[in-house]
Design goal:
With about 240 residues, the protein is an alpha+beta fold. The chain is built from five helices and eleven strands. The strands form two sheets. The chain has a six-stranded antiparallel β-sheet. A five-stranded antiparallel β-sheet has the order 8-9-10-7-11.
């Protein structure tokens, strides 16, 4: 994905926190200052429309990073839904990712995108771009295990479906890290009816990828399932 790039926005104003609380899947009011979390804005079907890295500077000032191919659509969405809120969205320019510990941070200084992609994939840090929007539910990407979705907050877009899947159902497909041989599959590609690629990258002898899959389908394909970090190793379903 040589065309991968990231755009940073600032959202400032008295209503910024209240507005975001009604948009994203995480609990914005509880987000610690200067902490970056990957979260999502869903569509009405409970699937991720925009994936975004959210950083709270103060309750009236936020930094938001999205993939550059989603930037224009994201800005339109915020201005449409926030038309009557006391806040202002401004594009701050291109930023570059780097992994610090188990989280991604962004800087204005150029970084090696290929290195970051491989590290993010190995850490189970799936990201959404224009190709994969409207494809996956937050739980399928293990966002709740990364503090990117909370089930004890108020309403947001798609919340009814996201909550129902958590409280009344168990997902059949969820995020796995796999290694395979041959050509690198494209994001959103289906390797099987029950295996869909989220992110992928070439490695020696083949590729590594994050896929949303049913475990039995991965066995059928003969893919090597690699371990994810401990925090993402647990059952994605709600503890009974």
């Amino acid at each position: 994905m040589s065309d991968l790039a990231f755009s940073c926005f600032t959202l400032n104003g008295a209503d910024a926190q209240k507005f975001l609380q009604g948009q994203v899947t995480l609990h914005v009011e509880r987000l610690e200052g200067n902490t970056t979390r990957y979260t999502a804005i869903c569509d009405l079907k409970g699937r991720i429309h925009f994936g975004l890295w959210l950083k709270k500077v103060t309750p009236e000032s936020f930094e938001i990073v999205v993939t550059q191919d989603q930037a224009e659509e994201f800005a339109k969405h915020i201005r449409k839904f926030g038309a009557f809120s006391k806040m202002k969205l401004e594009e701050a320019g291109t930023v570059f990712p780097c992994l610090e510990g188990d989280s991604t941070r962004f800087t204005e200084n150029s970084t090696d995108l290929v290195t970051w992609q491989l590290q993010a994939i190995e850490q189970g840090q799936a990201w959404i771009n224009q190709t994969t929007e409207h494809e996956f539910q937050p739980q399928e990407l293990r966002l709740h295990q990364r503090e990117g979705v909370h089930y004890d907050k108020g309403c947001y877009l798609g919340q009814e479906i996201v909550a129902r899947l958590w409280f009344k159902a168990k997902p059949k497909h969820w995020l796995h890290l796999v290694q395979g041989a041959g050509e690198v599959p494209a994001p959103a590609a289906k390797l099987h009816n029950d295996v869909q690629v989220v992110n992928s990258i070439a490695v020696e002898g083949g590729y590594k990828a994050l896929v949303v899959a049913k475990p039995t389908a991965l066995e059928e394909l003969g893919l090597t399932v690699l371990p994810l970090p401990e925090a993402l190793n647990g059952d994605v379903a709600r503890p009974q």
